[in-house]
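Appendix B, record 7
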Amino acid sequence: MMRISVLDDATINKIAAGEVVERPASVIKELIENALDAQATKIEIEIAAGGTSLMRVTDDGIGMSKEDAVLAIRRHATSKIKAAADIYELSTLGFRGEALPTIASVSRFSLRTREHDAELGTEITILGGKAPEIAEAGCSIGTRIQVEDLFFNTPARKKFLKTTHTEGAKISDFVTKLSLANPEIAFRFINNNKVSLITPGNGSVFDVIQSVYGKEAADSLLVLNFEDENIRITGYITKPNMLRSSRSWQTFIVNERVISSKAIAKAIDNAYHSMVPKTGFPMVLLKIEVPQRSIDVNVHPQKTEIKFEDESRIFKAVYKAVVDAVRPEEQRLGDVAAGVQSPARHYVAGAMQFQPADAQPILVQEPVRGIPERPDAYSLDFVTAQNTLHENRGQDYLVPERMGAAAEEAHTSAAEPTSSTDEQEGVYAGEVYPIGQVDKCYIIAQDDTGLYLIDQHAAHERILYDRFAKRTTEIPSQQLLVHQLLSFDSDEAELVEQHLDTFRALGFDMMASGAQEFRLREVPADIQGNEAADAVREILTLVHANHRVSAEEIRHACLATTACRAAIKSGEVLNLKQMKLLLEELAHTDRPYTCPHGRPTILKFSSDELAKMFKRT
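Structure tokens (predicted):
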């Protein structure tokens, strides 16, 4: 008795559909990629009921002759390759030749196509994988493929589909990513008789982003540009103030193919380290060009993932591209301010607490200049600025001993008022300059384009964090007159023991003094002694909760907590000179957008937004 038999074509097609046709979005992917390979300049996608009842893709590409159309619905028939060696130089999006016959095997399928110089086109209809019906038909140049009642003849597959809303969202996401990857093509997406996406097809990626995500996202874009031997990266990424709670608006394109990649996503996360909250992700459009032979597109049945020849090199290139974008040279403070998105119009008659900055003249103040050469950490200028910022805090700010008498003199003179003559010599030059303080928490500033609100604590946190992070040697520390004994649980004690050198380099000098007990002898110069123990515990709690045990992540947690503890707080009154120094120092930082915990440091109300809020337009 024979146990092995050869399957018929209908069964083979339905099995292949398990790889090619996972869900309606898989069908859309295959059909759009065929349209792209056919040199289309306009592609229209229409779906109903999440694609389960109807999917239609129409393009204006080169079309097919009757002979090619008949071959296209046969398995393993393709125009993309001729031999196995061609796979490694493949520049088109697909090549297996299984898409159309497998889709047709699990749906009511029809295809209309016509070449440019043909008077009539060809129409092919297939019902659930049965024999095709072929006829001549009048149709437009290009190809239109319609898929109805997906999985009507395989109910077991259909019951595993999600809701029509979820399936429709998957299709929408894929169409969006393909439109971003192909800005030279005009896309039109219709979902349940409603146009949900239109792109101009003018070749501008910026215009596509604006069409897809809106003007606010487009206005927040930073340019990505990196080029190395055999690697070129271009695209856009939003400032850290423009975030979403998922990666759905991150698009990665390698050699014109939309892919997903954990390595690329991780590189972006690392580059945005300390600038975004744990729940936020920036919008990214990342286009990578590498030699075709350095990637393998055949590691995933639907080709949504690829294998890089040297993944670590790609990781480093993406990391540098993003870091260069978010830490540009010669950028003004006003350029990094987060736009206020759809400000609510609430009108109140209650009293407002406004601090007029020591009643000094408002309209003649010297503005914050552009970014000059960055001073070294703990330079004379920095110590002077920090002493001035701390002068109202009732604490002695430790000046490193190496600064000597000059620093002490600067410390003494820093709080002296500026003469009115000096104030009047200031010029605007389109820069941001402070005009007052609200609720002892927010600095009000302006330039010739609008109004700014600066969170004084978040801004000072960023300043201190960046200063600390640039230290290649140990951060200056101060000895405690009375050592503090700290007790930890077993996990925390183990973390401390493993990273004593890292803590010491960051200003926290601890030594074991018993089981799960450490003696705190020195703390960073910027932290008051009564806050040091809480700072250590806060760092360990954060690290332990997130299972971070690397020295780099311990260092970040230490720096962020130290900066938070040392920064000026809400409720502290600042004079105008202090405000100016704070804005000046913020402009010097590498990442002025947010504090180390991802909160924005500066918000902007443009002149147009102010006019709308007051109903002047």
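Remarks on this record: Residues 477-566 form a domain with the Ribosomal Protein S8; Chain: A, domain 1 fold (CATH 3.30.1370.100). DSSP finds 20 helices and 26 strands in the chain.
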